[in-house]
Each structure stands twice: as C-alpha cells, then as structure tokens.
Amino acid sequence: MRQTSSLFALVSAAVVSALPAPHNEARQVDCCAILADVFPDKVNYPGSSRFSQETDAFWSSTCSLAPNCFFTPDVTAEVATAVGLLSSNECRFSVRAGGHHSSVGAASNIGGVTIALTNFKQRDVDPVNNIVSVGPGNRFHEVYAATDAYHKVAVLGRYAQVGTGLLLGAGLSYLNNPEGLSIDNIVAHEVVLANGTVVIASADSHPDLHKALKGGGNNFGVVTRYDLKIFDVPEYVLGAMPYYDNLTYHYHVDAAVNDKFTHILPQWGFNGATGQRESFTPFLYLKQQPTLPPSLQPWVDVPWVHNTIRQTSVLTPLAFENHDGYFNGDAQQQRTITIFADREFFHEVSDRFHQFAQSWAHIEGFYALHCKMPITPFMVQKSIENGGNVLGLEGIEEPLSILYFGVTARNIEDSEALFAAHEEFVENLRGIAQERGLLHRYIMWNYSAFNQAVIDSYGPDNVQFLKDVAEAYDPNGVFQNLVGGQKIPF
C-alpha cells in the first residue's frame, strides 16, 4: 500500500512516541544529500521507482512512513561509510531488513534516511562446518531454499516472507524444541558500529556484543551478516497444515517436552468477511518416520476440513504454505504477553479473543490471529549451553507460553480505534493473568507493539548489561537517540 496523507494523522501519536527526536533540525543538515555526494546511484528520492518499491516492501502500512530518502547499499563497506556519515552529522536514520513487523518506527521514519538492506542477499552454505552465512536482505524462504539443497536447516522463522529482524529478538522455529531459539544458534554477527567500523561479534571476538545482540535488537549497530548453525534434516520429514481446533496445552506440557522432534504452531484466525473462526496449525516432525508419531496423532484424530500432511525432503514449500493468504500493505498490529502454560486459561483466552474479534467484524479486511507458542526449560538450557542471551528466562521450571494477538484492517483509517481497543484487550488479559499468578514478565520482541516495554521485561541485570555494552560500543548513543525501535531504558 502506498503512503497516503491520512496515515500521518492516524498514526501521528504512535510516531511521536516511537521515533527519536531529530537532532539536526537547527543545523538544517540535508542528510540525504550528504549520502548522495558519496553514493549518487544509491540514494533514492520520492518519485523514483526504487523509492516506491522500498516503500511498498513493508508488511504493515503503519510502518510505511515517509523518509526523505532510501539508501540502498550493496556491500558492508557502503553501510559503514553511510553510518559513519549519518552519525557524525547527527542524522536520524532507520535500518530495514525484511520489514515484517508492525511496530511503528522500528524500520522507518519521517523526514530522515532509511537504510534498506534489500540487496544483502548472501546465502553461503558451508555443509562441512554446518554454517550458513545470511545477508539481512533475505526472506526466510530464500534461506530455506539454500539449505534444502544440502538437506540442512537453520533455526529460522516459519513463514516464507519473514526477514532477518527476527534474529535480533528471539526467534521461534521448527527446531526450537531440540535446539532452542533462533538467537541462540547464531555463531557470529558482522556488525557496523556507530563510528563506521566493522567488527565480527562471536563467542571469541567481542563476546559481550555477541550476547547483547541475542535479544538486544538494533541498539548497538547494523548487522550486515549472520552466521547461523545448520542441522541435518532426514531424507524425509513429515510436514503439514491441518485445519481443526487445537490441542495446545498437550503440546506445551507433553509433546514439546518429551518428543523434541515435534514442532507444532497452534493458531487460529477469525475472518471478518465470513464471520468464521478457522484453525490452521503448521507442524513438522524432524525425524524420518513413515507414519504419524504419537505426538502428532491427536491432532488429526479430531475433525478437520483439509490437511496437507505428507513426507517431504524440503522445507521451502512449507514456509510458503504457512504464509499463504498474508500480504503486504494492510494495517497490522501485533501484541504479546507471556504466561505459564495453563489449560483453563488457554481456553478462556481463546474465548475472549474470539468475542473481541467478532465485535470488529464490520471493519473492511478485518482479520484476527491468535497463537500460543511454548518456551520449555530445555530451550532455555540450550541457550545457556550456547553462551546465553539477554531475555532473562533462566530458571524457569515449567513451560511458558508466548501468547500472540494480531489484528488487521484493510484501511489505515480504521486502524486507530481498532488498535486502541486491541491494546486495551491485551492489557486487560495481562491483568487477569497477573491476578491468577500465571503472568511471566517476559515480552517477546518479535511479536511486540511499539509501546510494550520489551527490554525492561528482561530484568534489571540484563538491562544493566545492555546499557554497559551500548556505552562501550556506541558511547555517543547514536543507536539510542537517532534510530527508532525498542530502546534500552537509560
């Protein structure tokens, strides 16, 4: 959806809250011109076809703002030069990889520069050392296709068009149960720092920065390459998209814990156009098996309308299958809370969200999506074994559930009231969960709204660690003050 003037009025409050204040208004610095002097062919202004392409690349229209220009580099050295120039001239800028988030200001801005990493398409598979080097311009279906050729897989997101921003937040994947979160399977980050220098952050080089990037988001630099672990995939695995009511609690406390080859994404949606609730649940069994294992059998024993269960040797088609029906350009909002898995509350949450969704069915293009996704103690232990992250999940003794709530409207004009009601609904649920002793403080970055206090939820020790790392690598606070998104609470 192309940017329109109505967007500014409707999301202005969110933009003011989410975007950093400009530092260079009094100096009247033309930040785009500074870049164009060095890279005349890579700075794209309104009215150009490339500017329109980059504007349309955002998943949610609420994130498709109005920068003065897009900068489209091809290599890390160009990013380094640009960041150095923007930092030294106190220019507001943003960095967009896949652009698949609903958080206003996370990957664009009004009146600044947006660095679009669209051209960073590196997908180098090293099957001997089991590493895939991935550029941030990739969507996950492209990475799946690269590793499918070697019967390997990385711990990636499950939807085809999701991008690498997921690798800065947490990362739920087909391989979570045996291997942990996506961030815990990153071997190294190539990072452009605020002063324009480039470092490799890993367990052996800048380990503090490496750990901070595992959940700390865009607060330290621009990641221009991720080196990810890859794992063997059996010649054939079971993959599917069955449609039915959920057996979510059983998956959280039994299958995800006791049969780690099993991955299930329990979710349902409400379609305002039809007034119907539809359950569609991707699953994957990462072990060669001719028939359904006991962990999956209950999911097909209940009535279903359609399923695509089959043996497959590649995961790319499944990623597209998961993404079917999702498009760029609608107004989206995601929100999330984390609870301890509880059967009765799972049912109550679904009933409440269904009632909420029905009340908004009159909105054109309305859709509501709800998911419940486990984090098990074993997944947290895998994080510790891989050097740890900053999410603050250590010490859990029973499965958590990441509750996802998403709403969609066709027209940006309908989003203001819908998004306010959605926020009120989720915050009310948070209060109920807290009253019942079910709430966990953690807020997952990947599914958060712009005004959810993600980094605060990591706990005071991790917040202090992130502050220390930011002061060490970005002493002038460039990524705190000039770049939007979830910021460290200084």
Mean pLDDT: 91
Q: What top-tier CATH class of the domain at 123-232 and 458-481 fits best? A: Alpha Beta
Cα Rg:
22 Å
CATH topology of the domain at 123-232 and 458-481: Uridine Diphospho-n-acetylenolpyruvylglucosamine Reductase, domain 3
Structural class: alpha+beta
Protein name: FAD-binding protein
InterPro entries: FAD-bd_PCMH (IPR016166), FAD-bd_PCMH-like_sf (IPR036318), FAD-bd_PCMH_sub2 (IPR016169), FAD-linked_Oxidoreductase (IPR050416), Oxid_FAD_bind_N (IPR006094)
Signal peptide: 1-18
GO molecular function, one term: oxidoreductase activity
Kindly list the characteristics that best describe this protein.
490 residues; FAD-linked_Oxidoreductase; six-stranded antiparallel beta sheet; globular; Uridine Diphospho-n-acetylenolpyruvylglucosamine Reductase, domain 3; FAD; alpha+beta; 20 strands; 30% helix; FAD-binding protein; disordered N terminus; signal; single chain
Describe the structure.
The protein has 490 residues and is of the alpha+beta class. Among the domains are: 5-116, Uridine Diphospho-n-acetylenolpyruvylglucosamine Reductase, domain 3 (2-Layer Sandwich); 123-232 and 458-481, Uridine Diphospho-n-acetylenolpyruvylglucosamine Reductase, domain 3 (2-Layer Sandwich). The chain contains 15 helices and 20 strands. It has helices at residues 5-18, 31-38, 49-55, 76-88, 140-148, 176-179, 207-212, 248-258, 297-301, 316-323, 343-358, 377-385, 415-435, 460-473, 478-481, and strands at 43-44, 69-71, 93-96, 113-116, 123-126, 131-134, 152-154, 186-192, 198-202, 222-232, 237-240, 262-264, 267-271, 276-279, 283-285, 310-312, 331-340, 367-375, 400-409, 439-440. Strands 5, 6, 7, 8, 9 and 10 form a 6-stranded antiparallel sheet that branches. A hairpin with a 4-residue loop joins strand 5 (123-126) and strand 6 (131-134). Mean pLDDT is 91; it is low at 1-17.
